[in-house]
Amino acid sequence: MKKLLIALSLALGMATSPAIANDDIGMSPQAVYEIKQENKEPILFVDVRDPVEIMFIGQTDVVDLNIPFLIVDRYSIDEEKGVFRMYRNPNFVDEIRAALKERGLAEDTKVVTMCRSGSERGKPSADFLREAGLNAYYVVNGFQGSAIKEGEHAGFRTQNGWQNSGLPWTPKMNKDKIYHTPKEE
């Protein structure tokens, strides 16, 4: 019983820990939420998913805005994976810098990115911003979290991530924060 209580205490301690130690630029959803709520340090919190994904999955209004790192190319399909191909937003760094400037934030302000799972766009977008000289981090496990591997709900993203951490989110997109592409004339 004592071992069980120690294990449970350690697990709860890790679950509520504000930072995740798996790398030096990953942050837990709870840590990002706390920073945004306490408003003690300037931060730019960016959802880097394609806007259509946000439309179907949901979002949190805690983010400052949506600037996609990868954009879905609806004209090109990866036949092997059975999905649309994605390409890097060529204006990503410039749009992040413009968002910082628009909000009166210095270029060394912490920029935190969040994607669906944290791995395919969250960390790569933070790495890309760091290569461009910005102070970037990402939300570990992203908005939707990880898919469970076994059981009745295998394959569903029902563990960790922003959405599964009891943090505020909505199934509706915020038109004032969503990324808009110029209309083709």
Mean pLDDT: 86
In the CATH scheme, what's the topology name? Oxidized Rhodanese, domain 1
Instruction: Tell me the number of strands.
Output: 9
Mind telling me the CATH class? Alpha Beta
Find the structural class using helix and strand composition: alpha/beta
Strand content: 15-25%
Strands across the major sheet, in which order? 1-7-6-2-3
**What share of the residues lie within helices?**
25-40%
State the shape: globular
Characterize the largest beta sheet: strand count, sense, and whether it forms a barrel.
5 strands, parallel
- Please mark out the parts with pLDDT under 50 across 5 or more consecutive residues, or reply none: 1-21
Radius of gyration: 17 Å
Order of helices and strands: HEHEHEEEHEHEEE
CATH superfamily: Rhodanese-like domain
Report how far apart the termini are: 69 Å
How many separate domains? 1
Number of helices: 5
CATH architecture label: 3-Layer(aba) Sandwich
Signal peptide: 1-21
Pfam families: Rhodanese
Keywords: Signal
InterPro entries: Rhodanese-like_dom, Rhodanese-like_dom_sf
Provide a descriptive summary of the structure in words.
This protein has one domain: 3-Layer(aba) Sandwich (Oxidized Rhodanese, domain 1), CATH 3.40.250.10. Helix content is 29%, strand content 21%. The protein has five helices and nine strands, in the order H-E-H-E-H-E-E-E-H-E-H-E-E-E. The chain has a five-stranded parallel β-sheet with strand order 1-7-6-2-3. Helix 5 links the parallel strand 6 and strand 7. The longest helix has 15 residues. The radius of gyration is 17 Å and the shape is globular. The termini are far apart.
